[in-house]
Each structure stands twice: as C-alpha cells, then as structure tokens.
# Entry
Amino acid sequence: MSAKIPSSSELRPSRLTFGVEMEFVVPWLYKSKDGPLATSKDIIYDRIKDLFERHNLPTKVKTYKYKSNFDKRLLSRYDHWGVENDITVFEPSDEPAFEWVDDFEWVGVEIQSPVEPDVPVAFDVLDYGRQLLASTYRCRVNHSCGLHVHVGNGSERFPLESMRRIASLVFATEHLLITLNHPWRTANLNARTLRDRSNLAHKLAGNEMSSGPNHKCKHAHTDCVRYYATDVRHGEQPISWREQHRDPKFVDAFEQVRKSGFEPFQPVVDETTPSSPVSKASSVSGTQSSESTPGSEEDAKSEEGTQSSESSPGNKEEEKEEKSEEETQSSTSSLSSKSSKGEGSGEESPKEGSQSKKTLNGSQKQKQVDDPFKHSNKPFPTRSIPRIKLPRYTTEQLIEFHDKLEEFGADGLLFEGENAHRSPDPGVFAAVEEIYQAPSSCAIAHLMFPWGASRVNFQHYACDSFDRADLGRTIEFRGAEGSLGPWVVTWAKICVGLVRFAVRSPPSEFVRVLENCQRAEERDGAYDCIDLLNDLGLFAEAVVAARRIAENKDDWGLEYVEEEPKPKSEPEPEEKAEA
# Structure
C-alpha cells in the first residue's frame, strides 16, 4: 500500500515529501523457553517484513514511474517500508520499569516508512502501518526510542531562499515545540537544542564554533558555495540540473555569469534607452545606484512641476495610468456616496448604510477565512486549554533530566563549564539576521549544527553532502520521543506543515509568526505552541496537541497562564422617568 497520486496537468508548486522513522523494542524468548513468544532474535525482522507484505505494505523494492533516471536513482531506495535493527534502541535491564520486563528478552527495531507526497492518503497509510505494528506485537517504547520525521522536496534540494526561511522558522519555534514532547528530550544526547548549542548561538555570543566549511581553501569544498548550494534565480534551472552537470566547465561558466552581475529577465538599459516604468519601479523598490540612469533628469523636472515638451513614451504612459486611477477612485467614491443616500433624497439612510457596511464586513471576513495564511487576532474556536507558560529549564533541571536518561544510553551532554559548548539564547531576530546573511545552504547547515545530533538536522545540506548527487536531501526532525500511537501521524503533519508554511507563506505572514515567537519569550501567555499551530494552518493538529498537553501537563511539569479577571463594568444609572 502506498500513496501513489496521479500527476495533474495543472501548474502548481511541487508537493513536499516526507518519511517517518519509528523506533521501539519488541520482546522475544529463546527457543528453549516456553511461551507464545518463543522464537529467535534474528527472525523478528523477517516476521515484521512478512506482516507488512501480507497487508500490502511492500518491504521489497518495487518499480514506480519516475520523471527521470535522476529521480529514480535518488528515490527508489525509499519506495518501500524498511525494517532494521537499531543498536541504540534497547530495554534497560539493570532497573526495569516493570517487573514483567525481566521475563523477556528485548530487541530494538526501527521502521522506516517510504517517501510519500504531502497528501492525506499518505498519512492514512502511515497510520495504518503503526496500528498494524501495535495490534500485532507487544511493542514498547521508552526514552531510548525516537520518532524522526524527514521532510524533503522530492528529488530536488531546497533552494537557498527556502533554506533561509526553514532555518529561521525552526530556530524561532524551537522553544514552543518543546512543550509538545517529553521534557527529558531537551537533555537527550541525540536531540541537542539549537537555541543554546548551535554554531549560530556560539557565533552571536562570540564563542568558539565547531569546524565548518573552509570555502577559501583550494583543497576544501568550494563548488558548493559557488555552484551547488548558492541561490536559484528566476528563470534558472533547479539545483538538480547543477548536480547532473558537474564538469568544471559548467561550474566555471556559472561562476563567471554570477560575477558579471547578470540577472535573468532584467532589461538591458543603455544611454539611448529612454526611462521606463520598469526602471523607475526598480529604483522605488530599494535598488539604488550611484550612477545616474537615463531619463533621471526628466523625471526630476516632472516631479518639480516643470513640464517638458519632449517627454518620454514611458512617462506619458505613467501619466495616463495615474489619471485613469484617479478617475476610477473618484467614480468609486461617488458611487459609494450615492449608494449610502436615500433614493430621491439628499439625506443618508442609516438603515441601508449600516446594512451595506455589514455586508462589506461579512465579505471581508469570508475572504479572510478563505485565505489559509490569514488569521484574525481573536482566539481560535479550536482552543480548549489556557495558554501555556514557556518552560525555562534551569541548569539544575537539565542535569536532572540528563541523569535520568543515563540508563537509556541517551546521556553524554554537559551543561556546565567550557566543554558544555553552550551559549546564551540570541533571540529570534538576531538569529534570523545571521541566517539571511549566509551565502549558501551549506553555510546555513553549519550555523544550525550543534556539535552533534540535533533536534532538527540540516546535515544533508552540509558541504560534503553535495559531493554526491545520490545522497539524502531532507531536513530531519528529531525532537519527538518514541511513539506508536496516533501522535506519530500528528507529529509528522506538524513537521511537514512547518516546512510548508516556511516555503509557501506570504512574507508578511511569515514575519508575523516570527514576531509572535519573539513575543512568547518576552511575556508568558502572549503566545504558545497552540497559537503557533493555528498560525501554521494546522487546526486539527492544534486540537490534538491541546489534548496531549492537558493529559501530560502534570507529568511534564507544564503550567497554564492564569487569566487576569476581567474588570466588572459598573451598571449605568437608570434615568429618572420624566414627570
């Protein structure tokens, strides 16, 4: 069973793709022992594969239709369900959580779902797979298990502009998304936090960073920053084209074009070319030049009110457009004033005017609802719990979490001293500014590297990942603890939805979410993870997340923000009846 979606002839952005890794442990017994689990450790994986095959979840490589051989080479390894051993996943035997745990042997299993497009049926298939496992085997999850979600762009790499947005949103939302998972995960060796351990935090604090790309050395990686990992301008081929054309002649030619200042679809202006609306608009948009452009003198004269008989065609067209806009506005205002007055009377009809205003407001509200990225400032009707206080774990609390992870093999982090490699949280916009100054995707991957496994892993965009075209190109979310419940699907939707919002949302809405994330740090109750999910357009996931928080609030040490009592309005004095 797989979510194979027929291609559409309609032009639309390519769908994001995703895959999930579920980690858990399964009990077994030696053949010499009696019991329903009597088996061999080595054949457990084969039995799970047979289970998936019997229920139409293929575990063997199958041939799908791909757009090109390049797509097939990249994605064919991920078109089936993988069942593997994971030595980092185990059940502790020294201090078992329950007495019956010692009655069995345990083996760690990792299930990898195939790469699927971001469509509802793909999440249904994932839900079917996790239910199949939970209902067939006595699976168990503990703190050695993780739930990893890979989000990608099919066989394409995310371009530099998308990487800037994704990294900015991931960094900005980390402290909010932490509240959706067990707090011990913040001290887990395999899920380092970015706000205090990434090279980005170290750089802004003036501390030492981990070794990263040396793009100035001849023997180091240089093709990534000048070719593979740089931006994709409008009209250029995607990064996959560059990966398929690795000959030095293509790299050198590309670099020469960039150094020449060439930009696709920009008009070539010489001294004989009169000023045009395009050149004038470009100057207004902020691209200022110290050199005077042809026609600038005529523009200055026209602004001062001196009319010239030898005006350029572009200026005449602008004047006509401005006049037509003024006429349209005046006619619109006259129509609106007429509609607000009674017929055949110079007096305004309050009833009709208010009714027209109500209709206009209704249409505006409907338009706002139809826009998936536009939300009002009012609380969403899906919210069922008060806002959550932002957890601010002290060093002592993090050390306590860390010590409890020792028996699960997830310890190893330091929280004090120089070797802890921790820096102060730089905040949202200081980090975003630094990310947007990065010249390439590999530079962003280095900034987001926390000296080891991260809550969100960008290492598929590191310099050495561009050396081979058949390597992975996803962003891996590792912040969730292991699960085989419905949270598997919900968390996958949240990770995909966050990336989708980052690369598709309008700039104004993207910046608004960043501002809200900053507000959450400044004042408790201003903004929390439920607000974030609603802003990302993940309304159903927000309902599930609120229920999850309510169920685990006490165990996770979360606190609600106490709402301030609304001031009681004084009753208006009754007017005395006239005698």
